[in-house]
Design a protein that fits this description.
417 residues; alpha/beta; Rossmann fold; 8-stranded mixed beta sheet; 14 strands
């Protein structure tokens, strides 16, 4: 198939869409990516891209078309401009840069913002090609949950935008089962919505990996690692409160690998709370290097704030954690926590419960290595059965082929609505 992928984020930024594009090319599809300028998560255009943009015009055989946009920056206004300028630029300049090209289907990737759906909807009309829209973040609910928008009229306006975008899609893919009824509130009861979770990535397999030397060696330490975006949704105030509770447990060490909009705040809080001996910030590193960091971890931490919208979410990092075969500590509500509980892949506590998190970490640190290995193996099992990469991408291929023919088959993935 001739496929157009519309995504605000793409390589050299680290998102799962990179893996999907590479796999679709390997399967024989002709893939074109319409995207912006790489600036996530630091908020500044990557220096290597600025030096030579031509080096980033092809990715594993896919043609990459980039449009100008305002970088994310550090403030809320700059972020809104980032969202809006990409949507406008991809719609206008993107359509012009794609002139003369025809496509069998369009795949839009939406971890956030929803505005990526605007150029996808326009190109659906211009190219007369059906759109599959992968929803990994629910708007306007997420905006309200993290306090970006509090005005009810403004939230209603965003809701109308969401409805417009959903109704211009031929297939909507929901990253969790709980997303489906929420999506249908805006898309209409007759819309085509399917359960399509993120998959476990083989890059996180750690069995043949050596430990990175970027983490100081501490004999007999119990290392709990957080890897990924350091943002408001991840509830770092609760994580740091748990670390404070366990400060007297000298063997327990918290390792934070990643970056994000709250990184400076976290760094300052570590100093103010006198946690520098037990909480280490290790910065952002390429995804291919993560197994060498995971090799230091006795447990992997995933967290989301105590908000209704986040209880419907399966954090993307959870699948990566499961694939690493390391016990998971989940400070989550809802569907993400249920995955860990059902699979016996680790321990859970309620979102926002810093005391529960401290207790879970302490419990894991005191059980035997053999018990933790059983949890890790349980995670590997559910990684393969529920989030197997080949099965999920096979299903996506089938859906894309069928919307091309204006027919979407009943899903083969368990739990599809």
């Amino acid at each position: 198939m001739r496929l157009l992928v519309v995504t605000q984020y793409f390589w050299p930024e680290n998102f799962r869409i990179n893996d999907l594009v590479g796999e679709l090319v390997r399967r024989g599809h002709q893939v074109t990516v319409l995207t912006g300028l790489p600036n996530y998560p630091d908020g500044e255009i990557f220096p290597k891209f600025q030096e030579n943009p031509a080096l980033f015009s092809e990715y594993e055989g896919a043609s990459v078309i980039r449009v100008p946009m305002t970088a994310r920056g550090k403030g809320g206004l700059q972020l809104m401009l980032n969202y809006l300028t990409f949507a406008l630029s991809a719609s206008v300049l993107g359509s012009w840069k794609l002139r003369g090209k025809s496509f069998d289907a369009i795949f839009a990737y939406e971890p956030s913002p929803i505005t990526v759906g605007l150029p996808a909807a326009l190109l659906r009309s211009v190219k007369n090609a059906p759109v599959a829209f992968w929803v990994l973040d629910l708007w306007p609910e997420t905006l309200q949950a993290i306090g970006v928008i509090r005005s009810k009229p403004l939230l209603q306006a965003v809701g109308k935008l969401v409805s417009f975008i959903y109704k211009h899609c031929d297939l909507i893919l929901a990253q969790s089962k709980s997303f489906i009824p929420q999506i249908r509130k805006y898309s209409g009861k007759n819309s085509r919505v399917e359960y399509f979770p993120s998959w476990s990535e083989s890059v996180y397999e750690t069995s043949t990996t050596e430990k990175t030397d970027l983490i100081p060696n501490k004999p007999n330490s119990f290392n709990i690692m957080f890897a990924g975006n350091i943002g408001d949704a991840q509830d770092f105030p609760a994580i740091l409160a748990a670390a404070e509770n366990l400060r007297s447990e000298k063997t327990i060490r918290w390792l934070i690998v990643g970056d994000g909009r709250m990184a400076e705040w976290v760094r300052d809080e570590i100093k103010q709370r006198n946690l520098t001996d037990c909480v280490l910030m290790l910065g952002r590193h390429p995804v291919e290097n993560m197994p060498s960091f995971f090799k230091h971890a006795d447990a992997l931490l995933v967290s989301l704030k105590d908000e209704p919208i986040f209880s419907m979410t399966i954090p993307g990092k959870l699948q990566s954690y499961l694939a690493a075969g390391i016990p998971v500590v989940a400070m989550l509500n809802g569907e993400g926590a249920e995955v860990v509980q059902r699979s016996c892949a680790g321990l859970t506590c309620a979102a926002g419960d810093h005391e529960g998190l401290a207790q879970a970490v302490l419990k894991l640190s005191r059980i035997s290595k053999e018990e933790r290995e059983i949890m890790g193996n349980n995670g590997l099992t559910v990684s393969k059965t529920d989030f197997g990469r080949e099965k999920l991408i096979n299903q996506l291929e089938s859906w894309l082929e069928n919307i091309k023919k204006n027919k979407v088959p009943k899903s083969k993935i368990e739990g599809t609505a």
